[in-house]
Amino acid sequence: MSKKKAISRRTFLTEVAAGGAACAIVPRSVLGRGFTPPSDTLNIAAVGVGGMGRSNLINLASQNIVALCDVDWRYAHKGFEHLDIDIERLKKRIELPAPAQPGESSAPFDPVKAQARIDGMLKLKSIHLPKAARYTDFREMLERQKDIDAVVVATPDHMHASIALAAMDFGKHVYVQKPLCWSIEEARKLSRRAKEIKVATQMGNQGHSSDDGRTAVEYVWAGAIGDVREVHIWTNRPPRLLATGRPAPDAAEARARPLKWSGRDVNTRLAAAICGDYPVPSGLAWDLFQGTCASNVDYHPIYHPFNWRGWTDWGVGAIGDMGAHLIDHTMWALNLGFPTSVETVSTPFNGVSYPSATVTFYEFPRAVPCRQSN
After folding, report:
1. Per-residue confidence at 209, pLDDT binned at 50, 70, 90?
2. Which run of H or of E encompasses 203?
3. How far, in Å, CA of 281 to CA of 360, rounded?
């Protein structure tokens, strides 16, 4: 046998294994344009898929979505069932461009982005939702689902840190929706853990990712508006969407003493008026929704599925809901770093829901804009 044809069993097995790997790791050129080889996709799990999490899944439809977790599948299923309506609405806008309707973004309609979103919704609906494993408890998901590469967290604010820390402990990369967490201490813990585990982490902030946002920042970097000494930021999101300034439902105090019409007694009357015996809806794991909440709060429809943002147990109020977007561009453009002082004035705070209105003053050392060059 010639030297060229001589081959040992070990060499043969080694080369067969390498050949098998070559078949599994298909080069992009073989698949053709528009196709992603399996080796280039991530196995994604999402916790909180009924609201912003659904949007994240649409944008991640090019990846392999292997697991979904939510404490309220009744609400999550409504969002998934609405995919067909959303697809048809976008198709009509592409065919017949029209001005933005009330409640829609006023940004110029981009048919290319709209088509990409349609593609994502179709993939989510037809490919991922039928096969992805479903869980109610994120702890069970992390324990049982061994094929997860990365976790998307889009739950109410109070659970962001707990879920992200648990995912990192399992060695998973993590994407957490804004606001990153409920408290400063949680932010410090997340930062330390990410450095220790050495996984990829990111906070979701769609405003930071927008073309218009970056353009405005680049104007400041270029000196187009001169030196910036003062910035005013506000949100017009009404308190009714956040349920701020409201008392917690409670009839006990109203029964315990005669009520007058002082501010405190009016709040007591309001708390009694909205109090009621509301059963926990079928499909909602209320105990898991509360999660790390320090107090055990009875279910009430004023808390869930959206208004949790305005209650101190679960949300961080307007500053985390909209401030995470609106304040970001100032910090980014001016390279502000940490403030030297922070002062807030507000309408009365009842201790359970954030005030209806606040004004917060931040003072910073003289800023040096981070003017970047290509």
Report:
1. confident
2. strand 201-204
3. 38
